[in-house]
Amino acid sequence: MTGEAPPVKARGLVKRYKEVLAVDHIDLNVRAGDVYGFLGPNGAGKTTTLRMALGLITPTEGTVELFGRDPLREGARALQGVAGFVEAPRFYTYLSARKNLQMLAALDGDDAASRIDEVLETVELTARAGHRVGGYSHGMRQRLGIAAALLRRPRLLVLDEPATGLDPAGMRDMRLLIRRLAGEGITVLLSSHQLPEVQELCDRVAIVDSGRVVYEGALADLRRQGGAGYRLRTGDDARALEVARNQAGVEHAASGEHGLVFQAEEQDVGRLSLALGQAGIAILALTPELATLEDLFFRLTEGAGAPEEAGAPSAGAGGGGVEHADADGGTPASEPAPPAPAQRAVGIG
Amino acid sequence: MSSVAAASPAAAGIAHARRPSTLTVLRWELRKLVSQKRTYLGLALAVILPLIFVLVQNLHQRHGRGAENIFASQITQSGLATPVLMLLFLSVFMLPLIAALVAGDIVANEDGNGTLKTILTRSVDRGQIFAAKALAAMVYAAIAVFLSAAVATVAGVASWGFNSVTTYSGTVVSAPKGLLLVFAANACYLIPLFTVASIGVLLSTTTRNSAAAVVGTVGVVILLLILAQIPGLEGIRPYLLDEQFENWHGLLRTPTDWAPIIHSAWVCALYAVPSLLAAYLVFLRRDVAGG
User: CB–CB of A90 and B117 under 8 A?
Assistant: First the structure.
């Protein structure tokens, strides 16, 4: 009965704390095999949503099903095949890592206990397994959190900000591990505000802001819709702009700081280059540029961070957006502008 | 990080995973208690107080003649008087405090540390975890009672011999029977003590704060003791905890007076059952958002 059910299906999830609406009608569709990024600024409602998904808190409205089972109705049965952690993984600090895992394996039943050595090896904690968790660093606890999840042989792994607080090497190791787990067929629901992490790992995303999903779909689609474009430098940019504007299939052509920017499908770019040649305009450089996730994220969650022209490629936006996202816990409830074509994007208000 | 083949979902026979038993959960609750230093604070009190009592009695060599309590008057005649007196002294405040130390902490502590979410996302139901925690609190209370009794008995017998003892009814009972009665009296005392533990579990579940739950539990016990002392409230005294702490006196009479024991059983049930039921319902429905 649950064989075909998706790993996570949430419909109209609402969580209200008195006057505060933490989660406002969130729908999620995590498909089998997804590495699904759950993206949003601090305070956007990600963790609250994950808590509802795992049955830790009761939704004010709406339902969530894991492989077709509702954790609220079916309790632990609904969590079969599901593992992970919400916020930081927590352990008994007065017990060793191995004792912690032994206890969790006992609470998992079946043959979980027989996998303790293997999962410790997986997260490279074998040498420290006998030490009390109280003496563990943050990164070691995060890894132990993954080990504890793997004991359950998960089909769905729910990870809430797994790289938060890790040093660069720890973050890299964590990404490698998640990528490997995903490669082995585990569906991953990864909550994060680390944009490079999501960009690197995820194929589908939900972007949540102020308790609402403002985009859900393939990350590639989002990036394509949100700003797939080209940058063009020619011997005569003024004439080139005129040619580009008259060329069918070329959109949003505009003068940029270093030449022209425009959006077009690949075959239309070919026609434009031929047209420029026929017009005697030399092409000095023609480079494809995709909008970074960071651009799109800010466009969706703030509404004010869009480049001058919707869909125009942005240059040089690197990974420096994490700090912005961090610092932006209290995202204003302004109406963010959806990406230009914004297929499946849910507008606010 | 190395291969994780064993954790791959390929072999995921999860559809019919067998759920661990509540006994398994209880076993781990007890192991957690054994691993925590604070557990030994209460047990140390349960051990030290009888030792201090016996030591002081040995140093003063009082014979207790003329004492109001019949067991106090025969301290030096029979070592079996010591555990009875210790139960009398510790039953009203100290043993309830020891029971409250763990019962008040057992849910709130995990809530505060965030480990509650860790165990609630495994393959056991909330009801099982609650039952294991409540049982662990009671097992701890029982261990404290019998540990205290054992230490008092051994110290008393070592000091004043394994002799016959005179009970409340003035009947002399042999040493072996006296020992059996001491054990039974402590077992009877568990009825009101489990009630205290139940109140502790309720406060632990609802307050989410260990200190508040421990202090609150002791506060409830003291409140009921004070109520029992207020002139004009004599009518409700049989329904307060005060009298239930003395239910075991009926065993130390010949013939055995079962009335106070039966009375305490149902009065305590009136406190304990609603407490546990309320705690259970709160635990089942609560939002686990700590940690």
Answer: yes
Spell out the domain ranges in chain A.
Answer: 8-217, 229-289
Give the CATH number of domain A8-217: 3.40.50.300
Q: Name B229's Cβ contacts closer than 8 Å, sequence gap at least 6.
A: none
Domain boundaries, chain B: 21-284
A-B interface: how many C-beta pairs under 8 angstroms? 160
CB distance A201 to A219 below 8 Å: no
Residue of A90, A94, A115 lying closest to B291 (CB–CB): A90
As given in the structure block, the two tokens for residue A323 are 């700090």
How many alpha carbons lie under 13 Å from residue B119 in its C-beta half-sphere?
Answer: 29
ipTM score assigned to the predicted complex: 0.88
Query: What is the full per-residue pLDDT of chain B (291 aa) written as tens digits?
Result: 554 444 444 344 444 557 899 999 999 999 999 999 989 999 999 999 999 999 998 887 665 555 678 898 888 899 999 999 999 999 999 999 999 999 999 999 999 999 999 999 999 999 999 999 999 999 999 999 999 999 999 999 999 999 999 999 999 999 999 999 999 999 999 999 999 999 999 999 999 999 999 999 999 999 999 999 999 988 899 999 989 999 999 999 989 999 999 999 999 999 999 999 999 999 999 888 765
Cβ atoms B216, B103 nearer than 8 A: no
Flag if A122 and B3 touch (Cβ within 8 Å): yes
- Alpha carbons B7 and A338: distance in angstroms, whole number: 40
The answer to whether the CB atoms of B28 and A122 lie below 8 A apart is no
Residues of chain B positioned with their CB less than 8 A from the CB of A153: 6-9, 11-12, 14
The CATH fold of domain A229-289: Alpha-Beta Plaits (3.30.70)
DSSP string spanning A302-328? TSS---SSTT---SS--STHHHHHHHT
The residue of chain B nearest to residue A157, with distances taken between CA atoms, is: B9
Tell me the nearest-neighbour CA distance from A30 into chain B, angstroms.
17
Cβ contact (<8 Å) for B8 and A184? yes
* pTM, two decimal places: 0.82
Contact B125 A177 (CB under 8 A): no
**Surface-to-core class of residue A163, CB atoms within 10 Å of its CB (0-12 exposed, 13-18 middle, 19+ buried):** buried
- Chain A residue with Cα closest to B24: A106
The residue of chain B with its CA nearest to that of A150 is: B7
Q: Is A186 helix (H, G, I), strand (E, B) or coil?
A: coil
- Residue in B closest to A75 by C-alpha: B125
B107 CA: distance to closest CA in chain A (Å): 14
Biggest CA–CA distance in chain B, Å, is 80
